[in-house]
Histidine ammonia-lyase
Amino acid sequence: MPETVVHLGADPLRAEQVVAVARGRAAVELTESARKSLTTARQHIDALAEATQPTYGVSTGFGALAVRHIPVDSRVALQRSLIRSHAAGAGQPVETEVVRALMLLRLRTLASGYTGVRPVTADTLARLLNADITPVVPEYGSLGCSGDLAPLAAVALALMGEGEVVHEGRVVPAAQALASAGIEPVVLAEKEGLALTNGTDGMLGMLLLACADLRRLFDLADITAAMSVEALLGTDRPFAADLQALRPHPGQAVSASRIFAALAGSGIVASHRGPECTRVQDAYSLRCAPQVHGAARDTLTHVELVADRELASAVDNPVVLPDGRVESNGNFHGAPVAYVLDFLAIPVADLASIAERRTDRMLDVARSHGLPAFLAHDPGVDSGHMIAQYTQAAVVSELKRLAVPSSVDSIPSSAMQEDHVSMGWSAARKLRKAVEGLTTVLAIELLTAARALDFRAPLEPAPVTAAVRDLLRTRVPGPGPDRHLAPEIAATEELIASGAVTEVVNAKLEESR
């Protein structure tokens, strides 16, 4: 059961909690321990605010302007100016789920007690989430160092009752949305502007959402591969456990086991298992599916480890330590997150690439072992799935470009004070696009493999692959004369995104155990 309330306190957040708030609109609450930590840290900031010695973020300017000491009567204006000037994003608004993830992750760091914000500021951010008020955050503006500054500043601006938000399905002024929800805008005090903007929360939020999506898509890829192997009269022998054990990568073992189980009981596979079959071995795109899919799984496992470490982190600069010291640090640098965002884009592209090769094989009459050309109803009159493969190829080509890393780039900023940045936000944005692309590629393989299985009648597919095909047939008809294909691809994508395919597969695999 998804969580309906996520409590923020001493325990690290879990990835599924972030997804529950970002996508499932789960509510958030600060624990009593979090409130105590907030109060204690704020007392330290208040003491430093009254001291004659300047403290960065409390009584000084920011970035390259940190050399200026700011008098007490200008500090409210200082915080307000910081947020207004930093909310300098451009481009289209990012997705609501990304902004909600960003807000939750920033709130998690605030609740840790290391930032020095007042309890009322953290409470107000929680109330925005619970009221489903989502600040409008433009796509461009973060360099992934000093945190996701412009995106987080757009959120802080809404806390102040300025800027625009999405509320009840409409873009409205923040002041209007806060008033309708009975939320008082925050007047930021010392240190709070920095605390609200100095985090890697946007890139981490997008990483966690991508991980959740890719776990499902990697599972799906094993099933579409099994359907393609079956449709192409391939063998299940390379997926046997004893062969996979010779190369003991964990992800490879999982994928091979799933493909092997999905093919169990297949009348199509059994039809060519005898000595009369002259084929010695299948093409790489079939036989090596566990090696490629498994490497993708192992990459994702590493990425999730990094994400878990980030979820246990308090990212801010400066930080307020339990003994009252306020220390500058570099924990806001997005390199750890940026690297894995880039890393993950590589197996996404390669998984899509091998899926496209399997699809193309089913359409080529010279390699499909008896299937009609392009799986057309009447080849020549009909083109079947010819152009669906073109679409796959176009997406795969795009995914290869998206696999080029962002984190190797760095453009200095803030008068060379911030002279090395991570570009992690950019890495996250392209990974989101890559996840969408992989969904499309796998949808086309699923659509094509199901059609190919229908052409193998009266031979029966395996119970697992048959169940997936039958589920697809509730949305997309079987073989026949050419139809408008784009809506069928979109319907298959929606079916995948719904999780229904995964549910059917898991249920069937459980039955066979």
Observations:
- The domain at 5-199 is CATH 1.10.275.10 (Fumarase C; Chain B, domain 1).
- The two ends are 24 Å apart (CA to CA).
- Residues 424-455 form the longest helix (32 residues).
